[in-house]
Design a protein that fits this description.
This protein has helices at 40-47, 88-98, 103-116, 132-144, 162-177, 189-195, 213-220, 233-237, 262-269, 285-293; strands spanning 2-11, 14-24, 29-33, 55-60, 63-64, 73-76, 150-154, 181-185, 198-203, 206-212, 223-230, 242-248, 251-256, 273-281. By secondary structure, the chain is of the alpha/beta class. The strands form three sheets. The chain has a six-stranded mixed β-sheet with strand order 6-7-8-3-9-10. It has a four-stranded antiparallel β-sheet with strand order 2-1-4-5, with helices on one face. Strand 1 and strand 2 form a beta hairpin. Helix 2 (88-98) packs across helix 3. The longest helix is centred in the middle third of the chain and has 16 residues, at 162-177. The radius of gyration is 23 Å and the shape is globular. It starts with a strand and ends in a 6-residue tail after the last helix.
C-alpha cells in the first residue's frame, strides 16, 4: 500500500503541497486531480523519490520510498521524456536496465508489449521517426516494461485516437486486476469516472475534496434532469430548487438542488407534449470539480 501521511512541500517560502494525506491499495486506480499549479507534479515527484517532502512521511508497503524500491515504480509523465535519437529497442534496453532488468527479459517484455499495442514494426525505428501517437505508446510501454507495483499516469491518453485509448484502458485495468497500484491524472473527467473509485482534488496544494467517488456524488446533492420534448421552460424555471435550464440540440438539461425537486419538475414536464425522455442523473465529476476548484480543468 502507498501511504501519504501529512505531506507538505515548500519551495523556499512557497507552499506547493499542504498537509496532504491519502492511501492507495493494491489493485486500486486512484484519481489525483487539480488544475495546473495545484501541486500534482510535486506530489508525483515526491512519490517517485525525486523530491523530499518538507514534512510528513511517504511509505510503500510500510517502508520509506528510496532507491531500494524505485525498480518497482513506473511513471508516465505528461511531457514527452523519450530519447529521440535512440531506436525503440535501444530505449527499452536503456530504461529497463535502469530498473535492474536483464536484457533478455527486457526484450521479451518489449516484444510482448509492442505486439499488444500493434507497433511491432517500429522496434528498430528511431523514436523521432514515429508519430506523436506512437511515441505516446512507446512512452507508456517504457513506464510499464518493469511490471511496476506502483504506476503513476499523468495524462496517459494525450495524442491518442479512440481506438488506442481503448488499448491503454484495457492494459491499465488489467494491471490493476493483477495487483498494481495506479495513480491516474487526466483532464478528461469521463476517463477519471470510468477508472477511479477513489480520488483527491487539489487546489493550491491542499485537498479540497477527497474520498470514494460514489459517496462524493451522493453527498453533492445537486442532480440533473434530462428531458426531450415540448415543455414549458418558463414554468420549470419558476420551480423552487431549479438552478438552471439549458438546451443542447433537442435535449433540455435541468439542474436541480437535490433529488426532492425532481417530483415537482416531473409534474410540470408531464404536462408537455411529445416527451420521449425524462432522466434523473447524478452530477458529473466535471461539475463537481468546477464547483470545488472554481475553474475548468483544461490545458
Amino acid at each position: 500500500m502507498l501511504k501519504f501521511s501529512n505531506i507538505s512541500k515548500y519551495y523556499g517560502d512557497f507552499l506547493a503541497v499542504d498537509n496532504l494525506s491519502f492511501e492507495v491499495k493494491p489493485g486500486e486506480i486512484f484519481g489525483l486531480l487539480g488544475v495546473n499549479g495545484a501541486g500534482k507534479t510535486t506530489t508525483f515527484r515526491m512519490i517517485m523519490g525525486l523530491l523530499e517532502p518538507s514534512s510528513g512521511q511517504i511509505t510503500l508497503d510500510g517502508k520509506p520510498i528510496d532507491y531500494s524500491v524505485t525498480d518497482e515504480l513506473g511513471f508516465l509523465t505528461e511531457e514527452r521524456s523519450l530519447l529521440l535519437k535512440l531506436t525503440v529497442k535501444e530505449q527499452a534496453i536503456y530504461y529497463g536496465s535502469l530498473k535492474s532488468m536483464k536484457e533478455k527479459d527486457i526484450l521479451e517484455r518489449l516484444d510482448y508489449l509492442l505486439d499488444k499495442f500493434n507497433i511491432s514494426q517500429y522496434k528498430d525505428k528511431k523514436i523521432k521517426e514515429l508519430s506523436k501517437g506512437n511515441q505516446q505508446k512507446i512512452q507508456f510501454i517504457m513506464a510499464i516494461i518493469n511490471k511496476p507495483k506502483l504506476l503513476i499516469l499523468d495524462e496517459p491518453f494525450s495524442g491518442l485516437d479512440p481506438f488506442n485509448v481503448e488499448l491503454f484502458k484495457n492494459e491499465i485495468t488489467e494491471m490493476a486486476s493483477n495487483g498494481s497500484m495506479i495513480i491516474f491524472s487526466s483532464h478528461r473527467m469521463e476517463h477519471v469516472e470510468l477508472f477511479c473509485k477513489k480520488l483527491v482534488i487539489l487546489k493550491n496544494g491542499k485537498s479540497v475534496l477527497q474520498g470514494d467517488l460514489a459517496e462524493i456524488k451522493k453527498s453533492y446533492r445537486k442532480m440533473n434532469i434530462m428531458v426531450i420534448g415540448d415543455i414549458n421552460i418558463d414554468k420549470i424555471k419558476e420551480i423552487d430548487g431549479v438552478l438552471s435550464v439549458s438546451k443542447n440540440n433537442l435535449e433540455y438539461e435541468i439542474k436541480i438542488a437535490d433529488e426532492f425537486v425532481s417530483d415537482k419538475v416531473f409534474k410540470e414536464v408531464s404536462k408537455g407534449k411529445n416527451v420521449t425522455k425524462y432522466s434523473l442523473e447524478e452530477p458529473s465529476l466535471n461539475e463537481i470539480f468546477i464547483e470545488k476548484v472554481g475553474e475548468t480543468y483544461e490545458k
